[in-house]
Amino acid sequence: GFDLSSINSMPGVVGLTNHNTCFMNSIVQCLSNTDVLAEYFVLGQYKNDLKNCRKDRSKKYGTKGEVIELLASVVRSLWTVTYSQDMTKSLKDSISKYGAQYKGSNQHDSQEFMLWLFDKMHEDLNMQPVKKRSFTRRPSFRKSVSRKPSENGKGIDDVGAATKLAVDLSPTSFIQKLFQGHYRSSLTCPNCKKRSDTTDPFLCVSLPLKQRTTRPMYANVVYLPNKRRSGIGRRHMAGKTIKIGVSVPLDGKIIDLRQAVAAECGIHSRLLAFVDLQHDGFHKAYGDDYSLSDFPINNSSTTAANMSLYAFEMPPIAKMTAGTLPRNFASSHKKRATLGGKFGKEGKRFGRPLVFRASRDVLSTELQCMILNQMSDQLKNGVKHERMGSLFRLQVKDGIPNKSYLSQQAQQPLRLPTVDKALENCPAGGPLHIKLVAEWDTDTKFFISTFQVEVQDSVRLQKVLHQQPVTCTLEECFDLHTQVEELGADNAWLCPHCKKQQQGTVKKLSLLTLPDILVLHLKRFRVTDGRRTKLCTRVEFPVTGLNMSKHIFSGEMNGHISPQSPKSYNWNPAFASHLPEMVGPEDHLYDLYAVCNHFGNLNSGHYTACCSNPLNGKW
């Protein structure tokens, strides 16, 4: 033992040297402030367990006690205030020795490291008798232990079933005794209505967070001129380009955005074409199945103001003759530098985007006049486009590569094969159309008025709505974790009674037993279409008196009354001196004493630990 009175500074309040090992140090600090575990290490009680452990398992699956000895040395140094950075360096070297993933100085997930450490410590301290289980060892003690249901649907009903369940739930190491609890997973067949129960051990409960179900999207809507509008929209917006904001499902697609924009603008959803229009022209056209997750979720005003997503309102298709182009046009303009009378390679978009319809038999000069007529409100005073001559050439987007320009010598340019190709490439879901870029001589821009996108108030409203933090309680997280789930076709279950794969199976997860030390993990990262984003949900939790009673399963487990408390376990007497009084079923209360925080994102960040010192209770 050691004498705390001989220590001048507060024991346990010592920082650990970081060399990109904050993921390890934060967990060590939390374990050091776990009073029962700290006493186990500081007083050397672990040494007796190392002597009596299963050497074969420790050698094959553990670290032969090396990591435990070094961890105990670090914990003891924190409580005797004798820590030096060489101690954590030695611990990190040993961890890298037995865990190849921890070699080097890369950052890692602290929760994954904690489970790895628990696994190695368990194997080093494992006192499971050789004759206790005759079947092959599971790959990990965290794996599921299944129970075959009986013919009556209540599970195992042989004479020794209750004893066997208690033995299976009993711990075989000090780590399991402190941190391990058990889930009860119940599957109910939708056909025969019979239930099958399984038990699954856990060392850490990973809780889902309440999430926002919608996200903001901003688009520049290009309205048709008033005379071409279908009559269901807002007249005062005719001919304008207006930025709007809408809410769409978090996992939504363009079809969801299409419906939201249509509702906001009073435009038929199938008359909207969504494109990526940047400073140098069209880049991409979006079909209904395009995922919105490719658009970053960012509420900053700068990002919203520079969005390149455009929604063009197209005129409804009228009756068409053989010579009518059964498509709509969306066009943009950009200037090109001139060199010897030829167009250069660099350009920048200017002017307002236009939408119009033309016959496929239109002549080149007629097509140019149509574009200039559409631009009449953008031409500066005193400019008559009839006198401006041949000012631009037209490029068809998504046409035939290297043949995308409409020849000015062609009698009917819209009959060219590159136009046919562009029509074939028109994305599904929206109106059929082609996209043209008018490339102007650089001097022409001086004839055209400046153009600005108006911003609708819906942009501000969406920012305010989605900037408000999502808040939930720890109780709500547990409710989400244990809510009833209906398994889909991808998770069809083989019912042992029906002997068939069953869809629509009802799954219910509950807590069968609770450990003395309950470790909770908040699932802060969300995966959407292979992309992971960090959730900023605010979780409210009690510092003292977390009552877990409502989440404990009470009833029959495979036909037998389930154990309600660690007291009902088949305890190994060898460990009895190490454990405090365990709570009973009437008192499943927990007090918070340590928090491991992560700051940053998936790729980078920093871990810190905030702990309550067990000597004075100060954080």
From TrEMBL:
InterPro entries per UniProt: Papain-like_cys_pep_sf, Peptidase_C19_UCH, Ub_carboxyl-term_hydrolase, USP, USP_CS
Pfam families: UCH
Ranges where the USP domain occurs: 11-619
Region (Disordered), start-end ranges: 136-156
MF (Gene Ontology): cysteine-type deubiquitinase activity
Compositional bias segments (type: Basic residues): 136-146
Cited PROSITE patterns: USP_2 (PS00973), USP_3 (PS50235)
GO biological process: protein deubiquitination
Signal peptide region: none
Organism superkingdom: Eukaryota
EC number per UniProt: 3.4.19.12
Recorded catalytic activity of this chain's protein: Thiol-dependent hydrolysis of ester, thioester, amide, peptide and isopeptide bonds formed by the C-terminal Gly of ubiquitin (a 76-residue protein attached to proteins as an intracellular targeting signal)
Protein name (Swiss-Prot/TrEMBL): ubiquitinyl hydrolase 1
